[in-house]
Predict the 3D structure of the following.
Amino acid sequence: MKPMKHELILQGMNCGHCVKSVRETLESIIDLEVASVEIGRAVVEASDFAKIETEVKAKLEEEGYPVTEVKAA
């Protein structure tokens, strides 16, 4: 399956520390590549995002950055 990019819209981000925290959280997830992270959004790439979407959302929520929307990037 070809990897596809997804844009995650995030709440709670307002500084460089938030960006670093989100990047580190996403990088810890197996089968997920981080394309970019900036305040309020992250772009990730995965072959089967549906399979790991719940884990991605749960880990980001744990860190205080709930995902409000996921869309194709």
